[in-house]
Amino acid sequence: MAATPAYSLVSPAVPEWLNKGDNAWQMTAATLVGIQSMPGLVILYASIVKKKWAVNSAFMALYAFAAVLICWVLVGFRMAFGDELLPFWGKGAPALGQKYLVHQAKVPETLIKPWYPMASLVYFQFTFAAITTILLAGSVLGRMNIKAWMVFVPLWLVFCYTVGAFSLWGGGFLYQWGAIDYSGGYVIHLSSGISGSTAAYWVGPRLKSDRERFPPNNVLLMLAGAGLLWMGWSGFNGGAPYAANVDASIAVINTNISAATSLLVWTSLDVVFFGKPSVIGAVQGMMTGLACITPGAGLVQSWAAIVYGILAGSIPWASMMVLHKKSSLLQKVDDTLGVFHTHAVAGLLGGLLTGLLAEPDLCALILKNPNTRGAFYGSKGWVQFLKQLAAATFVIGWNIVSTTIICLGIKFFIPLRMPDEQLLIGDDAVHGEEAYALWGDGEKYDPTKHGWHASLHSDIAPSPNINNGARGVTINL
């Protein structure tokens, strides 16, 4: 009888340095963040816009998710997390080779070292790059030329997103200086909000009729998309420590506390000032609460998460409902979904609050400088607040300038805005497809426009006895 062969306790696929729990959590977190975009924002965008823009809005998100992934592995990841080229930019190179992806992940010097392969980190960080680009799209829905968008996505990723990511996360000058952005309040939310409003300015406004009346075509489906965003945020902030550790758990509970508080505050303000709660307002409050806590999710105590939520539900509400209506500058920019308010204002607010409320013991668990603290915890904390302010200034300035250059460069070859003929019709003119096999918005039934094929016309006779806003039809079988 042959002897049973002896096997190594460590498989080649499970090297000694790999922590299965950390790797499993990192891949789970990456999947949760990916679901926020696909299908989360695809569903949210398709349902929150006017019916005639449902397909176009969903496609903009879908295209960006795919395009960002390919650009990310070809050059973007190592521009954001590779060797330094400039104090704010890494050396671009592919992140595709097996020898690169199977080795232990490397990140800038912190107290936490990832115990999983580089492949896990590449995909996790891709999902952040993708959602940032898709959030930006919310500012230009309903009128940006789809061909211009297809060019804009890779250019913005390479020349804008990677700069913020390297500067604050990848070992760049803001990271070395000690500015804090736990999970993307600046890299993602401030960046997408500022770039989105800048792009909206250069693209131009929607048609006057669309800008004045732009109702959601499916509020319940909008809530489904919003729910995917909220639940996915546990991976968004919970994956930031690069380990399944205590800090990840704190980040997850703080994230949900802030979101719930902000939603309730925003809804309460709607009731007080407008007499009724708004479902769209509740979603906006949820979003601002999530964006606001992101830069400090694992660095503040849970009572502070309630403070984040209160301010996230009130300050962006005031900027959207009061300041926007009184500011001639803001009125000039047609920001379709108010990304400036829900992400730029909320992300900036969260970054500054982190400079005030970052708790020393929690900072010592993860940050490079173990003496980091917010101003609330001692006079030296004011230095941290000033660093947060300076970092925000850099992110805002870079996004305005780079997005402007990208838009003007594209405009030289491709119109940024759709022609008015397409804007009047919407999806059918742009894609030759419509979201729903029905008609509405008050127009009369037209068999050539509303989905009836020419081959069926001989079997369809108009029914003069039905008139509920569109003529009925009788199908003779």
Automatic annotation (TrEMBL):
Annotated Gene Ontology cellular component terms: plasma membrane
Transmembrane segments annotated in the record for this chain: 24-46, 58-81, 121-141, 148-174, 186-204, 216-236, 248-267, 279-297, 303-324, 336-358, 389-414
Name the record gives this protein: Ammonium transporter
MF (Gene Ontology): ammonium channel activity
InterPro entries cross-referenced by the UniProt entry: Ammonium/urea_transptr (IPR029020), Ammonium_transpt (IPR001905), NH4_transpt_AmtB-like_dom (IPR024041), RhesusRHD (IPR002229)
Keywords: Ammonia transport, Membrane, Transmembrane, Transmembrane helix, Transport
Localization in the cell: Cell membrane
Gene designation: LOC115953822
Protein topology in the membrane: Multi-pass membrane protein
Species: Quercus lobata
All residue ranges annotated as the Ammonium transporter AmtB-like domain in the record: 24-436
Family membership noted in the UniProt record: Belongs to the ammonia transporter channel (TC 1.A.11.2) family.
PANTHER family assigned: AMMONIUM TRANSPORTER 2 (PTHR43029:SF38), AMMONIUM TRANSPORTER MEP2 (PTHR43029)
